[in-house]
Predict the 3D structure of the following.
Amino acid sequence: METAFFLEQLRKLNMDTITGVPDSALKGFCNHINAHADSSFRHFVSANEGAAVGIAIGSYLSSGKPACVYMQNSGLGNTVNPITSLANEKVYGIPMLLLIGWRGQPGKKDEPQHKFMGTVTLPMLEVLDIPYDVISPDTTETELVEIMAKAGKELDCNRQYAIVAVPGTFREEGALEYRNSHSIIREDAIKEILKGLNKNDIVVSTTGKISREVYEQSNQLFGGHSECFMTVGGMGHASMIAFGIASNRPDRRVICIEGDGALMMHMGSLAFLGKQKPENLVHICLNNEAHESVGGMPAGAAPDYWRAAKEMGYDFYEEIKSHEELEKVIPQILDKKGMVFVEIKVAMDSRKDLGRPVETAQENKKEFMKYLAGN
């Protein structure tokens, strides 16, 4: 399906606002709306999916026009509260169209973090009383027009309507060419961090390519990865997992490695950590100003996160922009006692042959817990 044709149908539903969180299943759609500036649409990459629903609500209240909210199905959970307590017809009755990428579709091979959510995506919409249609690469333009007609009737009744898109539904027009000006390769930064670990240190890494790179670099450096908990789902929650471990094991140093997209998704965690001040937690943000793991769309904001950590009460904070600073600062900062935050500005780059964990999530969990208990 051509994204331009899909957008034409949105215009016919009187929409001029598109907002959401990038998704690899919607890669063709995301790349198109990012690459083709269109004065007939306002586009906002939100901090998280619930925030996108908030934008859609505010947009409707101020214009009378429904908005399109896009997301991966894993983000559907983030929308449940604002949809049920605000947008639902029994509350304020805010119409909006949800465009949901369907990862983990039953019967299709996918990553472990998507399997359960893929199974419950359609039942969740049914529980939420949101009518839906599924579109795929086989959906014709005529069929889409019919689907949009059904959606329009629901929107006219101040309800929500969902279009669930199978991966590959939208034609890809070419790779997104977004780049930043940073020179540090993210995997090199991860390697430098892991080289600075002490014998009993613990690593908690965020979902996406960061965990895949932690996995490969740990295997290369140490012959295994039992010291690493790879948070392969639950975007934005790695720092709280790290805190839960650090608070329970004050005798161990915990290094949390996450990306700027994940950190932005739940910025309140910075304030929480700044108040709790665990002395054994090092919080590292690898900032490429983009959602690289799901296609490379620029993030909705690109602040200096180290400044936020400073204001939130972290004891130590550093910004790293060069390989020289990386090699000099990482060994120093890892040895500090107190609440530490490090922001490393990294390039948009990853190896084409970057692998994935060969073990199951359950197997990695058992090895990690065994490592914690054994030292």
Q: What stands out?
A: Residues 193 and 330 are 7 Å apart (CA to CA).
